């Protein structure tokens, strides 16, 4: 059995997810990025996107990154609403093409859960992890 040739470059899945979330009107008041804004204290609306592992399935030409969404808000309730909006927006990306990238499926691995933040003591934070199935050629 031969090993399939990996692509010459993998897409920047963090940037792709940021673009998907930024396009959603329910997230228009939040800072959506990989890094927090300057002087961030965890009490403003923000969705931070990070790849937390995943796997390349060579025979299928599918990258399966695990995407962590750290969602902050001015109150616990506001953070929860924003977390659910971000979750919905990314789940809705399944079946859509973004440039040359096709997201075939999005599967929730760990739904939004309240998680105190050790960096920002006043933060209202929910964290979730979703697996994105991304065709890569």
Question: Features of this protein?
Answer:
137 residues; alpha+beta; six-stranded mixed sheet
Give the proportion of residues in helices.
10-25%
Q: Major sheet: order of its strands?
A: 1-2-3-6-5-4
Stretches with pLDDT under 50, minimum 5 residues: none
Which overall shape is indicated by the principal axes computed on the Cα atoms? Answer: elongated
Report the strand count.
Answer: 6
Helix/strand-derived category reads alpha+beta
CA gyration radius, whole angstroms = 16 Å
**Total of helices:** 2
Whole-number mean pLDDT: 94
Largest sheet: number of strands, sense, barrel closure: 6 strands, mixed
Give the terminus-to-terminus CA distance: 20 Å
State the oligomer: single chain
SSE run: HEEEHEEE
- Strand residue content: 35-45%
Task: Note down, in words, how this protein is organized.
The chain is an alpha+beta fold and 137 residues long. 19% of the residues lie in helices and 39% in strands. The protein has a six-stranded mixed sheet. It starts with 12 loop residues before the first helix and ends with a strand.
In short:
This protein is α+β, with helices and mostly antiparallel strands and 137 residues long. The chain is 19% helix and 39% strand. A hairpin with a 4-residue loop joins strand 2 (46-57) and strand 3.
């Amino acid at each position: 059995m031969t090993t399939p040739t990996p692509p010459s470059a993998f897409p920047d899945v963090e940037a792709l997810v940021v673009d998907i979330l930024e396009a959603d009107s329910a997230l228009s008041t939040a800072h959506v990025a990989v890094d927090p804004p300057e002087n961030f204290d965890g009490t403003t609306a923000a969705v931070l996107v990070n790849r937390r592992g995943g796997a390349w399935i060579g025979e299928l030409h599918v990258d399966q990154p695990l995407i962590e969404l750290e969602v902050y808000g001015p109150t616990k309730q506001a953070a929860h609403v924003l977390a659910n909006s971000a979750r919905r927006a990314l789940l809705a990306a399944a079946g859509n093409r973004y440039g040359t990238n096709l997201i075939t499926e999005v599967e929730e691995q760990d739904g939004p859960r309240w998680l105190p933040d050790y960096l920002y003591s006043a933060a209202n934070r929910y964290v979730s992890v979703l697996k994105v199935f991304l065709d890569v050629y």
